[in-house]
# Entry
Amino acid sequence: IVSPSQTTYNTTIINLSFNVVEDSSFECYYSVNQEQHSIQNCEQENQVLLTLSEGCYNLTVLAIDEYNNSGSQTVQFCIDVTPPVVEQASPSGVLTTSNVEIELHTNENAYCKLSSQDLSFNQMQQLFSVTGTMIHKQVLNLEQGHYVYYVKCKDVAGNAMDDSIVIEFDVNLAPTASIDIKEAKLQDDIYLLKKGTYKIELVTSEPVNQPTLYYMFNDDTAKKQISLIGSENPKDVLKLSIEEIEKVIYPVGFYRVKAKNI
# Structure
């Protein structure tokens, strides 16, 4: 048997091609899953077009010469003309991490790709890092924002999805903050303060609701809160008592910020 071979085809029309090595006259038969058919005018080189449905088949070719000597060969193959189906897809909703894992489950072994545009499978450039089976994964490092990804898969027979699966989610990261003590000397990322009154500027990475600022000296046992005023870039004045001013040595201590984004 020259064709078909032991593989999976994405067509329902199969070309049966086989050769018979025999000088004398002979007759030939082929059977598909034990259903036998006779081949008229069997020659040394033969071709028959078979129209089959989806499924797996045992195809056997039998040749018998004029002396009733026979020879046969069997090949197994499958037909799959249906694209894979994505049964599960994640994530969705609001995520609070920058490392986002996109995961798919398909109903058969396949290869999956994703894109920020709705393209054909062949046009999509990014193949999932884990793919080729029924579970597919891809980790993305994202910034805060709204994301829409289009996903298509193709099975091992070459059937690709026509319609994309849409994965849509938001990344909402916790805000970050930095502190600047005005008119203070900065050395090796440590503020050196003299006795006096200082303005503290708190800058947040995004607008926040009611941020709170705490400070603490090295020998304190509890942190102290500063009430902030302002909106996107809250500001306040740090006022120290006489006892606290006397504690201002190098290093002075540390600040802690707590805030929720809007």
In short: The CA atoms of residues 112 and 153 lie 4 Å apart. The longest helix spans residues 242-247.
